[in-house]
Amino acid sequence: EAIVSSESLSQQNLNFTSSLLSSAVQLLLHGHALELIDGEASSVAIDWIDAVLKKLEDTVDKKTLLVVSVLGVQSSGKSTLLNTMFGLQLPVSAGRCTRGAFMQLVKNNKDKSGLPVDFIVVIDTEGLRAPELGEGVKTRDNELATMAVGLADVTIMNIMGESVTDISDVLQIVVHAFLRMRMAFQKLKLDKTCLFVHQNVCAVDSAEKTQKAKDKLVKTLDKTVETAAQEEGIDDVKKFTDIIAFDASKNVVFLSNLWEGKPPFAAVSPAYSRDVQETKNLILAVLQNFKDYNLSVSDLAVRIKDLWDAVCKEDFVFGFRNTLELRAYKEVEKKFRELKIRLENLTFKWLINDGANKLNSCTDSNALRQTLDQAEGEMHKFLDDEGKKTQTELETYFDQHSEDQLIFQWKREKTQRLQRDVGVLKDETYDRLRDIKEEQRIMIESKGKLENCQQEIFTSAKKLAEELKRQHISDECELKRVRDESELI
Ligand SMILES: Nc1nc2c(ncn2[C@@H]2O[C@H](COP(=O)(O)OP(=O)(O)OP(=O)(O)O)[C@@H](O)[C@H]2O)c(=O)[nH]1
Ligand SMILES: [Mg+2]
After folding, report:
1. Distance between CA 308 and CA 302 in Å, rounded?
2. pLDDT at position 165
3. CA torsion sign, 27 to 68 to 220 to 141?
4. Using a 6 Å CB cutoff, which residues line ligand 1?
5. How far apart are CA 11 and CA 16, in angstroms?
6. pLDDT in tens, 257-275
7. DSSP string, 70-123
8. Which band of pLDDT confidence, cut at 50, 70 and 90, is reported for residue 382?
């Protein structure tokens, strides 16, 4: 890929790349798989795949395709199913086997299948929920499901047994992926559907049992879609059938056990082969309902590129295991914010009613200093008490939540964050107290200066008044003397 993606290639490298691409195309045409998603690096070598598909288009000319992918939990028999269905030789084994995703070209016999396309592209994927990968599995699974669902015209959802309870979180990933596809491709009106294959079902003939399983699956799917749509803020999606074409009576199948007897000495059961053949016919029938058979090799390359770009850009939702987890996290965040805002409001009230009041009633600098020390102590005690109460409430929220096991993973992080936030709130409140104290000190100082000035003005005014009065009296005496003298004259 490094050579293919470099911009300026020497003639020697050009020849080398060309022969590499020719070999890759020949291998693909001879039934070897092309790695779509690198299972080790969890990434798509997009330039390499693009170049291989271009070379393929050059080699086979204008050929049309339909894409079938498979998804399911680890070791649920996905690769075995594809091998049996399309005569492939994908590696199969107990434990974690397929890594990443692989595509394989299957030549289509137009007369036999009734499908007017040249190839069926089969995509095998790594098992979801690999226990070996632990916590890091979430993003990987979501990306894988989005790629598998996004690329395929028909996605086979492989389920071990008839119960869907064990794979409800896998369903959520897939439903979310379908929903995203619907949002992204709404304008293009792409046909997409999926098929649920229940493997290893003993009582395949028990109609009542299988009907119950179908009803339960539809109910689970509808509920999952509703939650996912709410999460994405989409109002017009309520049921699974609002996202893709799906008919439970046709799109849910049950397969017998692969083995007749107990491995390792068991033979492959003819019932399994028969059921797989019927499933294949069903897939072909579903594909026959499609209106658009114009997907070319280069269109597929564009699909892969667009999807991988979207997956790389979308980093938030993919960080969560499923829709329920995303919703639960948002709820936890909301609760945390509510508790924090309440604590901040209480602290603000304390600051105004207690801290600021006490400081503002101080009349001299000494008292002010002592009051600040005292207020700081009281503030620490107040926030310690209220912080503890909030912490208890937060812990109770985690312990008594209906999905306590799901949200438990954030308990430690949130309680530690609350402790940190209480510390920050203490520092901020102390800064506010110090500001109030400073304002009050300036007030006291300016009040003192004002009083001094007033006193000075008063003293000067008094002095002046007395002087004027004295002067006035002497003027009066002189006037009286003059008046007396004139009367004598
Ligand atoms: N009992 C039983 N075993 C099966 C069935 N289908 C497949 N297996 C066995 O289960 C094991 C795993 O099968 P795979 O086809 O590799 O399963 P997978 O889902 O592709 O596994 P990963 O690629 O690791 O996710 C193999 O040993 C198969 O022989 C089935 O219907 N019943
Ligand atoms: Mg496999």
Report:
1. 10
2. 67
3. positive
4. 72, 74-80, 92-94, 96-98, 126-127, 199-200, 257-259
5. 9
6. 888 877 777 888 888 999 9
7. EEEBTTSSHHHHHHHHHT------SSS---EEEEEEEE--HHHH----SEEEEE
8. very high
- How are beta strands 154-160 and 119-125 bridged, if at all? unpaired
**Which amino acid is it at 448?**
G
Distance, in Å, from the CA atom of 37 to the CA atom of 394, rounded to the nearest integer, reads 41
Identify which ligand lies nearest to the alpha carbon of 71.
1
CA–CA distance, 138 with 153 (Å, rounded to integer): 24
Helix H or strand E segment including 199:
strand 193-199
CA distances from 47 to 37, 51, 305, 370 (A): 12, 6, 9, 72
Distance, in Å, from the CA atom of 152 to the CA atom of 192, rounded to the nearest integer, reads 7
Q: For residue 67, how far is the Cα from the chain centroid?
A: 28
Q: pLDDT tens for residues 214-228?
A: 888 888 888 888 888
CA of 141 to the centre of ligand 1 (A): 19
Domains of the chain, CATH where assigned:
61-321 (3.40.50.300), 328-450 (no CATH)
Ligand nearest to the CA of 75: 1
DSSP secondary structure letter of residue 129:
S
SS3 category, 52: helix
* Cα distance between residue 311 and residue 307, in whole Å: 6
